[in-house]
Automatic annotation (TrEMBL):
Family as reported in the entry's similarity comment: Belongs to the V-ATPase E subunit family.
Protein name per the record: V/A-type H+-transporting ATPase subunit E
GO molecular function: proton-transporting ATPase activity, rotational mechanism
Organism of this sequence: Aminicella lysinilytica
Coiled-coil ranges (or none): none
This protein's UniProt keywords: Ion transport, Transport
CC per GO annotation: proton-transporting two-sector ATPase complex, catalytic domain
Length: 202
């Protein structure tokens, strides 16, 4: 799997889970709405009992607060789901088949633009070092890469050092970069249908 495929995989996974997550959001929103209506009813009863002159003003104000609280809860829920989506992307890359994962490592090296340098893997991937070098010999002409005996504390992927310059091709770094670029797109995939439904109900 090349780096360019990680983006499409995240979007595909998001689409596959969108229906389930939308139902969860809907259930959460309905619960929030129900609770807000209960609070509003209690406010009305309280205002009537006290005979407050400004009960309508108080009711409007508290309803507005309840709506804002509800929106904040739903927003937090959406952000949590989006974070889970990217965390699952890390899991899926780390769980690739041997061939796919080796393709991924080679893709990381090519994406760095380097033809030389010291490659660092994590402890679990260290045994793949020789195979990676063999692949690079045939796929990156004129390269002079070496694999360091030092293991890096990364989940997967690799890092390359060339002098004082580092290229971070770890799974964490790649997914974080994609996250910055795709958060809005993933959110639209997950929640656009739900937002349309909410709009139709108004």
């Amino acid at each position: 799997m090349g780096i360019e495929n990680i983006t499409s995989k995240i979007i595909a996974d998001a689409k596959g889970e969108a229906d389930v997550m939308a139902k969860e959001v809907q259930a959460s929103a309905e619960s929030i709405k129900s609770e807000a209506e209960k609070k509003a009813a209690r406010i009305v009863d309280d205002a009537k009992a006290k005979g407050a002159v400004d009960k309508e003003k108080q009711l409007t104000s508290r309803r507005a607060v309840a709506v804002i609280d509800g929106r904040n809860i739903v927003l937090g829920y959406k952000q949590k789901i989006i974070s889970q989506c990217f965390e699952e992307a890390e899991d899926r890359v780390a769980g690739l088949s041997d061939k796919e994962y080796m393709d991924f490592l080679c893709g990381c090296v090519k994406a760095s633009g380097n033809t030389e340098g010291e490659i660092f893997l994590n402890k679990e991937d260290a045994p793949r070092g020789d195979e990676l070098l063999k692949r690079l010999e045939s796929e990156v002409s004129g390269n002079s890469f070496t694999v360091s005996a030092e293991a890096k504390n990364i989940r997967g992927g690799l890092m390359i050092r060339l002098g004082n310059t580092w290229f971070n091709g770890s799974i964490e770094a790649i997914v974080e970069e994609i996250r910055n670029d795709l958060t809005a797109e993933v959110a639209s995939v997950l929640f656009v249908d739900q937002e349309k439904q909410d709009g139709n109900k108004k």
